[in-house]
Amino acid sequence: MDGVWVGTWRPHLPLGLISSQFPSPGPKYAIPGTTGHRAHNPTKRRAPAYTIRWAKPPAPESCAPGPYYVQPSMTRTGKYAAPAQTICGLPKIKIEATPGPSDYSTEKANRHVHKRPPEQPMTFRHKHMDHNQTPGPAAYTLPRLVGPNTACTRAAPCYSMAGRSHHSTFDEDLAKTPGPAAFLKVGLETYKNRAPTHTI
């Protein structure tokens, strides 16, 4: 920029904004807006935004065929076919001899339908009952009820009678008993506090 030098100062372009160059009385503020999603004012509440995406392009490595024609009869559950009747011959029916009304006996069903008193029939014993030999009353052994070793009853205290013991009787020879010298001497430190000892 060419201009007149003022001492050592030469006129040049301003490095920043100068507030005197704007018609407003104050400096210029860059306040973000409150509309839109991008560059929104952080001090204000922003509503949720939704975007409408476009169709995803096919992958370049896809080798699937192009669009094809779908028949109108194809549904999401399969092919729809209207009900139709075909004309064909009668199927071969195999005739079987079915029972008639006289082949049934309904007399035995009356005891299950109508109320009747109980009755016990008299028939012969089954042939398999002869081989089933159950044990008699004498084949079982009942537990004892008297004595100390009873299984199902409470036993009273019992005492047994035995012979007299030969220990400490009047006819025992006390001279054969061992004297005090027959036993080993027990050290005092076994049952009393041991005194301090010194070794050389």
From TrEMBL:
GO terms for cellular component: cytoskeleton. InterPro entries: CIMAP, SHIPPO-rpt. Coiled coil: none annotated. It holds the Pfam family SHIPPO-rpt. This is ODF3A protein. It comes from Turnix velox. The gene is Odf3_1.
